[in-house]
Design goal:
The complex is a heterodimer of chains A (about 375) and B (about 375). Chain A is mostly helical. Chain A has a domain at about 70-300. Chain A is built from 16 helices and 3 strands. In chain A, α7 (about 200-220) packs antiparallel against α13 (about 300-320). In chain B, α6 links the parallel β6 (about 145-150) and β7 (about 175-180). In chain B, α2 (about 40-55) packs across α9 (about 250-260). The chains are: A mainly alpha (about 375), B alpha/beta (about 375). The interface of A and B includes residues 182, 321 and 325 of A.
Chain lengths: ~375, ~375
C-alpha cells in the first residue's frame, strides 16, 4: 500500500472482469490517440486515417475475411499457449512448433502415398505429432535437467527455422521451381478448401474454435486440467497431492505444441500450398500468439477474441501501407503502441486507487 | 426515341471506356523496403522515372510485402482502381497468377518468374554479361589469385552470375579461383561483413557480391581491397576501391511495357508470350559502379597494364578486352556470350559444346558451377 497525497494505492489480487475490459479498452484508446499524433505528424489527417482503416477492415467483406484469415494461426497458437501458461511453463516456442507442423504436413502432402480423401486428415495428424514432439523436448529438459524453458523453447525455434531453410534449399527443393527455394506445389488433395470469395481456410478455423472450447473444458472440468492448474500455481502442493509434475507438464506441452503445429499445417495447406522460407510461412505468428495468450489471461475462449483483435491490428497495418501510403515502418509503430499501452495498463488492473481522507482527520478523531 | 436514348448511352459508354483505356494507374508490389539500396530500391527508382515521364500514368506502390500475402495486396490495389500491377519477387508468382485469373480486366507483370497468362507477362533485367565483364577486371587485379564472392541464396540467378563472373576471371587469369560464401539473406549487412572477413582470412583480395547493401564494398575498402558494386551506384562508398559493378535500369522495361499498353499494343488478351529478358543491349543493365562510369578512372592504368595473350585476339590489355566484349554485348545482334562453348563445369562435365551458346531456358535453370569456383554449391548436379 502506498499513499500519494490524499490517495491510497492498493494492490488488487484478482481484478474483476469489468475492470479488465474497461482498462484494456482505455489502453487501446490511448494507443489510438498516440498513433493519431504520428499520423498527424506524417501529414495524414487522423480522422481520415481512422475512417479509412475502419471502412477497409470492418466495413467490407474482403477486409473482414482478411482479419479472420490472419487470426486463424493466432487462435491455434494462442489457445495452445494458454494451456502451457496455466501450468506456468513459459513456452516461447510456438513459432518453432508451428513450423514443425508445416514441415510434417508438407512431408505428407508431397511424399506419402495415401488415398486422396485421407491426405488432409493425415497432414493434420502428422503435424500435431511433430509439434508435440518438438514441444515435449523442452518439457523433459526442464523436468530431468532443470533447463530453463524460456531459453530452450526459444532456441528450438531457430533450430526448426534452419531445418525448414535447409529442406527448401536442399532435399525438398521442388524440381518444378527452377532452382528457387520452394517445394513443389501441393497436389489438390492436400489443399484446404476456402470459403468462396475469401481466402479463409475454414477447416483450420473450425479446428481452432473447437480447440478453444475443448481446452476450456479440459482446464475447468477435467482432472488433467485441475492438475495443470495446481502444478502451475503451486508445484510443491501438487507434489504433496501426488500429482506427477513430469507427466502433467509433458502432457500440457504435447497439447500446446500440437495445437501450434496445427496452425502451421493450416498455413501451408490453406495459404501457401507449399513449404517456403520460414519467415514467409509464418510472419511471427508464434511470437504474436504469446501476447494473444497473455492478453487472454489464460482463458482459451478469450484467446479466440484476442487473436481476432490482432488480426484486426495486422489488417489495419496493411491498410496504412496501401490506402494511406504511409511507409511500412508505420505498421510496426502502430502495433507497438497498442501492445505497449495494453501491457503497461496491466499495472492499472492490479492496483486500485482509493480516495482516502487525510491522516490529520483520522488522528483528530483519535484525539477525542 | 427509346432506341435513340440507348444509342446515346452506348456512345457515351464507348467514350468513357476509350478514355479509361488511355489512363493507366499502375500498382507496384515490392518484397523489400524501398530503402534497401538494392533490388526494391532499383524498382522504385524506375517507378518514379516513368511516373514523371507520362501524364497519363499514375503509380502507387506497397513495400515489404510477405510472399504469401501478395494476393491480399493485389486485391487492395484493384479496389483502389489500379489497372496494371507489377509484382517484383519470384515468390509472388503463383499469387499473381491466381489474381490474374480473378481479375481478367487487369494487366499483370511479374518480375523474374516463368508463369504467364493472357493478362500476365513476365520480365527480367539480367546481369550475367555484366558479371562476366567484372570478372575480366577481377582476374587482372587479384594478386593472390583468390577472389571472394558473397552470395545471397544459391539459386540459378546467382549461380549463373557467379559462373559468368568466374569465366571472365579465368579468361585473363587461368589459375585464379573464386571463393563463394552464402549468407541466405537478400539483405543482411552483419552476415555480409562476416562473410567478407572470412574470405579475407582465406586470402581473397578482390570482392564481388550479391546482397542489397554496400557492406562488402566497405569492409573490403577498410582493408584496401578492390571490389565490384552490386545493383545500386556504390562508387561514393569507397571511391578509391570500387572498380566497377552492375547497375540496373528497370525503367527501360517499365517504360516500354506501359507505353505499349497505353498505345493498345498490349491488352488483357495477348500477354501469354510476352517475356522481357533484357540485357546490356536493351539498356536494362549497365556496367559500372556509378551511372556513366564503366570503370573507375583509378583502375584504368592497372587494367591497361595487364596484358594477356588471348587465344582469339592475341596480345591485348584487359582494359581493351573489357570494351571489346562490351561492344559485342551492346551490338543489337549480340556477337558474343560468356557461356560460349566449350564450357566444362568444375566437376569436369561438358556443359556447353564447342561453338554453342546456352538457351534462355538453360540459363534461367542453371545449377552447375563453372570451373574455378571454390566453396559450397547447394543443388550442384
Amino acid at each position: 500500500m502506498k499513499r500519494l497525497g490524499p490517495l491510497f494505492l492498493e494492490r488488487r489480487l484478482a481484478p474483476p472482469r469489468s475492470v479488465v475490459f474497461g482498462v484494456s479498452f482505455l489502453a487501446v484508446l490511448v494507443a489510438l490517440l498516440l498513433a493519431a499524433l504520428v499520423f498527424w505528424a506524417y501529414g495524414v489527417s487522423p480522422v481520415r486515417a481512422y475512417s479509412e482503416i475502419g471502412r477497409g477492415t470492418l466495413g467490407t467483406v474482403g477486409g473482414l475475411s482478411d482479419i479472420v484469415r490472419r487470426a486463424i494461426p493466432l487462435i491455434l497458437c494462442g489457445v495452445g499457449l494458454t494451456l502451457a501458461f496455466r501450468a506456468q511453463f513459459w513456452n516461447i516456442g510456438a513459432e518453432g512448433q508451428l513450423l514443425a507442423g508445416a514441415v510434417a504436413a508438407t512431408g505428407v502432402a508431397l511424399f506419402v502415398r495415401v488415398p486422396d480423401g485421407f491426405r488432409l486428415p493425415l497432414m493434420f495428424l502428422a503435424g500435431f505429432g511433430a509439434g508435440a514432439v518438438w514441444a515435449v523436448v523442452p518439457a523433459l529438459l526442464r523436468v530431468k535437467l532443470r533447463v530453463n524453458e524460456v531459453i530452450s523453447t526459444l532456441m528450438m525455434n531457430y533450430i526448426m527455422a534452419y531445418i525448414v531453410e535447409w529442406l527448401v534449399h536442399g532435399p525438398w527443393k521442388g524440381p518444378t521451381m527452377r532452382g528457387f527455394a520452394y517445394t513443389d506445389m501441393f497436389p489438390v488433395s492436400a489443399r484446404l478448401p476456402l470459403i468462396a470469395g475469401t481466402r479463409i481456410h475454414w477447416p483450420t478455423l473450425a479446428v481452432g474454435v473447437l480447440a478453444a472450447v475443448v481446452v476450456a473444458l479440459l482446464l475447468s472440468r477435467t482432472r488433467l486440467g485441475y492438475e495443470i492448474r495446481v502444478v502451475g500455481q503451486n508445484p510443491d502442493a501438487a507434489r504433496y497431492a501426488g500429482i506427477s509434475f513430469a507427466s502433467v507438464l509433458a502432457l500440457a506441452m504435447v497439447l500446446s505444441g500440437g495445437l501450434a503445429a496445427l496452425a502451421g499445417v493450416g498455413e501451408v495447406a490453406g495459404v501457401h500450398w507449399r513449404l517456403r522460407s520460414p519467415g514467409h510461412v509464418s510472419m511471427g505468428y508464434g511470437y504474436t500468439a504469446i501476447i494473444v495468450a497473455w492478453l487472454a489471461r489464460g482463458s482459451p475462449i478469450a484467446a479466440v477474441f484476442t487473436a481476432l483483435l490482432f488480426g484486426l491490428i495486422f489488417a489495419a497495418g496493411d491498410l496504412m501501407k496501401t490506402t494511406l501510403g504511409l511507409p511500412f515502418q508505420i505498421t510496426g509503430v502502430f502495433n507497438g503502441l497498442i501492445l505497449f499501452s495494453l501491457i503497461s495498463s496491466d499495472l492499472l488492473m492490479y492496483w486500485r486507487v482509493r480516495w482516502a481522507p487525510k491522516e490529520k482527520a483520522w488522528t483528530g478523531q483519535a484525539g477525542l | 426515341m427509346r432506341k435513340l436514348a440507348i444509342f446515346v448511352m452506348a456512345l457515351a459508354l464507348v467514350g468513357v471506356l476509350g478514355l479509361g483505356a488511355q489512363r493507366i494507374k499502375a500498382g507496384f508490389i515490392y518484397v523489400g523496403p524501398i530503402g534497401d539500396y538494392g533490388w526494391t530500391h532499383a524498382h522504385d527508382v524506375a517507378r518514379r522515372i516513368v511516373d514523371g515521364k507520362y501524364d497519363w500514368l499514375e503509380t502507387v506502390y506497397i513495400e515489404s510485402v510477405p510472399e504469401g500475402e501478395v494476393e491480399t495486396y493485389i486485391d487492395q490495389l484493384v479496389r483502389q482502381g489500379c489497372n496494371v500491377i507489377f509484382t517484383t519477387s519470384f515468390g509472388f508468382m503463383d499469387g499473381t497468377l491466381a489474381a490474374a485469373e480473378r481479375y481478367p480486366n487487369v494487366i499483370f507483370a511479374h518480375a523474374s518468374g516463368f508463369k504467364r497468362a493472357p493478362n500476365m507477362a513476365t520480365y527480367m533485367a539480367d546481369f550475367y554479361q555484366v558479371y562476366y565483364l567484372n570478372g575480366l577486371m577481377a582476374g587482372a587485379l587479384t594478386k593472390t589469385g583468390k577472389i571472394g564472392y558473397v552470395g545471397a541464396f544459391p539459386i540459378p540467378e546467382l549461380k549463373r552470375h557467379i559462373s559468368a563472373f568466374t569465366i571472365g576471371v579465368r579468361e585473363v587469369n587461368p589459375t585464379a579461383t573464386v571463393h563463394v560464401r552464402w549468407i541466405y539473406e537478400w539483405y543482411n549487412p552483419a552476415a555480409a561483413k562476416e562473410a567478407t572477413e572470412a574470405l579475407i582470412a582465406e586470402g581473397c583480395d578482390v570482392f564481388a557480391f550479391t546482397e542489397d547493401s554496400p557492406t562488402v564494398v566497405q569492409v573490403a575498402a577498410e582493408r584496401k581491397f578492390p571490389s565490384f558494386a552490386h545493383y545500386s551506384p556504390m562508387y561514393a562508398f569507397a571511391p578509391d576501391y570500387v572498380v566497377s559493378g552492375q547497375l540496373v535500369h528497370w525503367e527501360e522495361i517499365y517504360d516500354d511495357f506501359l507505353l505499349k499498353i497505353h498505345q493498345g499494343v498490349y491488352t488483357t488478351k495477348n500477354l501469354a508470350h510476352v517475356d522481357y529478358w533484357w540485357l546490356l543491349a536493351q539498356g536494362a543493365a549497365e556496367l559500372g559502379a556509378e551511372m556513366g562510369m564503366p570503370i573507375n578512372p583509378k583502375y584504368v592504368a592497372p587494367l591497361k597494364g595487364y596484358v594477356v595473350n588471348h587465344p582469339q585476339f592475341g596480345r591485348i590489355s584487359v582494359y581493351d578486352l573489357v570494351f571489346l566484349r562490351y561492344n559485342q554485348f551492346a551490338d543489337p545482334g549480340i556477337t558474343f556470350d560468356p557461356f560460349e562453348g566449350p564450357i566444362y563445369d568444375r566437376k569436369g562435365v561438358l556443359r556447353v559444346p564447342a561453338g554453342m551458346w546456352m538457351s534462355y531456358e538453360s540459363l534461367i535453370t542453371m545449377e552447375w558451377a563453372a570451373a574455378g569456383i571454390v566453396g559450397p554449391w547447394p543443388g550442384e548436379p
